[in-house]
Amino acid sequence: MKQKTFRPRGILNQDIAGICGVARMTDKARAAHAGEIGSYKYGADSEQDTEILSFLEITVGTFQDAAVRLTNDVKLGAWILDNCEKSSEEISKFNRKLKYSSQRKTPQNGFSKRRRELNDKYLNVLNIPFGLSPGWWLFFKVFKRR
């Protein structure tokens, strides 16, 4: 029988308290407590966790104690909202910031990355105006002559 490996929820998951990253951090806190975190980083070792905990103004130890003690995500979410004292506007702003930063860090597939590299290379060589794709550039060159 294949052994199940630990995998936390995604960084954009808002299941707990409506805050991005808290569900993932909760999974990692519980796994770290159980000694099953594997190669994942938790708390001060994780840049994401540090950012989330800083926003919540909750220490790593306090958060882990609550995550282990409150096994129901709804109760944990209520505890977090009671202890962080953040408004819904502040939470929405934080979520937007985290979503934006996670999109910027998302690795691209090989095709997209190579296409972008080639576009950058050939746009400079062909003297194509910034922001104009090679297809449009060729279209304008061909029909400009007519």
Q: What would you call the quaternary organization?
A: single chain
Q: Based on DSSP secondary structure assignment, what is the total number of beta strands?
A: 0
Structural class: mainly alpha
Tally of separate domains? 2
Globally, the shape reads elongated
Q: What about the largest sheet?
A: none
Q: Averaging pLDDT over every residue, what do you get?
A: 82
- Low-confidence runs (pLDDT<50, min 5 residues)? none
User: Total helix count?
Assistant: 7
Which band does the percent of strand residues land in? under 5%
- Report the end-to-end length measured between terminal Cα atoms: 70 Å
Radius of gyration: 23 Å
Write down the secondary-structure element order: HHHHHHH
The helix content is: 55-70%
Briefly, what is this?
This protein is mainly α and 146 residues long. It has two domains: 84 residues, no CATH class; 35 residues, no CATH class.
Describe the structure.
This protein has 146 residues and is mostly helical. It has two domains: 22-105, no CATH class; 110-144, no CATH class. The protein is built from seven helices and no strands. The protein has helices at residues 22-34, 47-56, 60-69, 73-84, 88-105, 110-125, 134-144. α1 packs across α3. The longest helix is centred in the middle third of the chain and has 18 residues, at 88-105. The N and C termini lie far apart (70 Å).
